[in-house]
Design a protein that fits this description.
mainly alpha; Growth Hormone, Chain: A; 80% helix; globular
Length: 413
């Protein structure tokens, strides 16, 4: 197993203001990722189709999100990660506006694909930039706190999907998202003018070849490292099992408990609440549990939460399960994400892009495979598969972390 290159992170002072502005972009991207979950039954009703058929808007977004990661990772290393985030954020504003104006389900699916193909650059490149400017010993904590912006985006997306969808219709939800992308993109362009760290480049000069084929060759080259394969396999399995089931939670709440879209959206915010609990307690959790403990317990909480969602007899028990789901996911995923920023420090953008590609390919495959099962049988087989598989992912990751490269470990626990 090859050891990672030395950590090239040099600044000792955390660039707080730049991180806060960058968090506004991750807020928008994260809201866009999760906004379709509570909107799924409303979109299905609007176009006279089933939830499984309407889930094409989720699959299209996540497929594009995964496909384009490879290109943006290497391009971010060469052109500057924050500069590329600013441009793609503005393009995502255009894509979200196209979603709001879509006249049919195929048009909405295409617009979601377009939005996913540009918004996919935002969060992975933000994490890669943090990896460039924050030393590894502080990165788990900084990443967890930074991800609060993404978590708030998830909460906003789920609330907006429910409340705005109920009050004004699903089109207005995408219109509001377009506005948040626009504000975030313009703020990042302004920040590029005043903070030299936001103009940092870590790869070859911008004149070097940056085409998709070059990017794919570079990313596939990373797979020669056994530790990279461990992390990518784990995150792909996590995406397949977790998001393949979680995408249908909102639809299940509506039909099982007969609640309106506003209540669906509010109930789904419990997931983000679990994430915020993790962000607020991450320093203590890392000290108490270590990375392996976070992986094991996170996977176990996910398993318990999906059992709870399968059996929940009343709404409040389902909301508790959703909150536990959020806490467990962030415990497991933040551990994976931290290693995703460190597995190839010499090409961090490409490494984090490969990480995100694996996550979203797993997610799109999981949602797609679950769709006919949901339509024909119901949620129980999908939820119980996640309940059985996610604890295994946590246990296997914890076991492999014992043999992680020395430069990629925070704690022996």
């Amino acid at each position: 197993m090859s050891a990672p290159s030395p950590d090239t992170s040099t600044p000792h002072k955390t660039p707080t203001l730049s991180l806060a502005i960058l968090a506004t972009a991750t807020f928008s991207s994260s809201a866009s990722v999760r906004v379709s979950d509570p909107l799924l039954p409303q979109v299905a009703a609007s176009f006279g189709t089933s939830a499984g058929a309407a889930s094409a808007i989720i699959t299209a977004f996540t497929l594009a999100y995964g496909l384009m990661q490879i290109f943006y990772g290497g391009a971010g290393d060469r052109l500057g990660k924050i500069r590329l985030i600013a441009v793609t954020t503005l393009l995502a504003a255009v894509g979200s506006l196209a979603c709001a104006l879509a006249p049919s389900l195929p048009a909405l699916t295409a617009a979601r694909f377009m939005t996913g193909s540009v918004s996919c650059a935002i969060i992975p490149l933000a994490f890669a930039w943090i990896g460039d400017v924050i030393p590894y010993t502080r990165r788990q904590t900084v990443l967890a706190r930074f991800i609060s912006g993404a978590t708030m985006g998830m909460i906003f997306g789920q609330v907006a999907g429910g409340v705005l969808g109920d009050a004004l219709g699903w089109r207005w939800v995408f219109g509001v998202l377009s506005g948040t992308y626009l504000v975030a993109g313009l703020a990042l362009l302004l920040r590029l003018r005043v903070d030299p760290l936001t103009r940092l480049r870590t790869g070859a000069p911008a004149s070097a070849a940056t085409g998709p084929l070059t990017a794919w060759r570079q990313t596939f080259g990373l797979l020669l490292d056994p530790w990279v394969r461990v992390i990518l396999t784990a995150v792909a399995a996590e995406g397949f099992l977790f998001f393949g089931a979680f995408a249908y939670v909102g639809n299940e709440l509506r039909h099982r408990f007969g609640i309106d879209y506003t209540v669906v959206g509010l109930a789904m915010t419990a997931y983000g609440g679990g994430g915020l609990i993790f962000s607020a307690t991450v320093t203590r959790l890392v000290m108490l549990l270590g990375e392996r403990g976070l992986a094991r317990i996170g996977g176990s909480l996910l398993g318990a939460s999906f059992v709870g969602l399968t059996l929940a007899p009343v709404l409040w028990t389902a909301v508790i399960a959703i909150g536990v789901c959020g806490l467990g996911f962030f415990m497991l995923h933040n551990t994976l994400q931290t290693h995703g920023t460190q597995m190839v420090p010499h090409a961090r953008g490409a490494g984090v892009a490969a990480f995100a590609t694996a996550l979203f390919f797993g997610q799109s495959l999981g949602v797609g495979i679950a769709a006919p099962v949901i339509d024909r049988v119901g949620v129980a087989p999908v939820f119980l598969t996640a309940a059985a598989g996610l604890p295994l992912v946590g246990l296997m990751l914890a076991a492999r972390l014992r043999r992680a490269p020395q430069g990629s470990r925070l704690s022996p626990r």
